[in-house]
Design brief:
280 residues; alpha/beta; Rossmann fold; 10 helices; globular
């Protein structure tokens, strides 16, 4: 029996005897990110970055100059995972500011959640010039969508490998960890209490998305199913869905098609809207 099978078996047994205690333990595990070091290929870009500290101790890396593009990594992620995209954006004349999410990197906190990610983006935006674009990967993409509903302003928005329905992801995690039904229900409620927002509200189907957007997702993503990208695209009238056959959950970040589509979106956002002439 492998370790994951043992964990699921343990949760299934103990979860029936003490559902709330088991759910509480899973809630802490779910909201406590591990610190994973950068890979070797991230180090050159990290060495070129300027470290900046924003309000409330929020940490970020900055490259380039020009209109500002704000990046938010995913759960247990890092700014430099966007390395290829950052180099392309800087080369195209943009300034890139990439956040360490709460509980990640040098930003404060031990626990985190999608609401904290979103509020961090709002805090960062309040200290930056008007944003040309916001780009988020995985939970960073979900938080970017949520942040627009909380008041974040940007000319364009890109989500990569992002879930659009948080309740679906919570239930999926709880099932994967082997929690029985009552413990699963406790788990969702405990996450909602900690985040300070009902999970049903963090659903792209309820959002009002009024900026041009790009939704990028690989079909072979093992963590967030491609159906999440379809749900985001369906709810977002002014979005383009870029379907990649391969790229998994992380490798997609360096895909040339993603970079090309992102630069195209930003170029489109820069064009003035020309009204059609009136006809008699």
């Amino acid at each position: 029996m492998n370790s994951m099978s043992w964990v699921r078996g343990f949760n299934a047994t103990v979860g029936r005897l003490a559902p709330r205690a088991t759910a509480s333990r899973m809630r802490r595990a779910f909201m406590t990110p591990r610190e994973l070091p950068p890979r070797d290929w991230e180090l050159p870009l990290l060495a070129e970055a300027e470290r900046v500290t924003l309000r409330f101790g929020l940490s970020a890396l900055r490259w380039g100059s020009g209109p500002v593009v704000l990046l938010m990594h995913g759960w247990e992620g890092r700014p430099t995972q966007f390395a290829e995209l950052i180099k392309a954006l800087v080369g195209a004349g943009y300034a890139v500011v990439a956040l360490d999410a709460p509980g990640h990197g040098r930003s404060p906190g031990r626990e985190a959640n999608v609401v904290l990610f979103a509020r961090a983006m709002l805090e960062a935006a309040s200290e930056l010039p008007p944003l040309k674009a916001v780009i988020g990967h995985s939970m960073g993409g979900a938080s970017a969508l949520l942040a627009t509903q909380l008041g974040l302003r940007t000319e364009a928005l890109v989500t990569i490998s992002a879930p659009g329905r948080i309740l679906t992801m919570l239930r999926g995690f709880a099932r994967y960890m082997g929690l029985p039904a009552k413990a699963r229900a406790h788990f969702v409620r405990l996450v909602e209490e900690k985040a300070g927002m009902p999970a049903r509200q963090i659903d792209v189907a309820q959002y009002r998305l009024e900026v041009p957007g790009l939704v990028v997702h690989a079909v072979d993503d093992p963590l967030v199913p491609f159906t999440e990208a379809e749900a985001i695209h369906q709810a977002w009238f002014d979005s383009h869905l870029l379907r990649l056959e391969r790229g998994g959950h992380q490798r997609v970040l360096g895909d040339p098609q993603l970079i090309e589509a992102t630069l195209r979106l930003l170029e489109r956002a820069a064009r003035p809207v020309v009204a059609a002439p009136l006809t008699a």
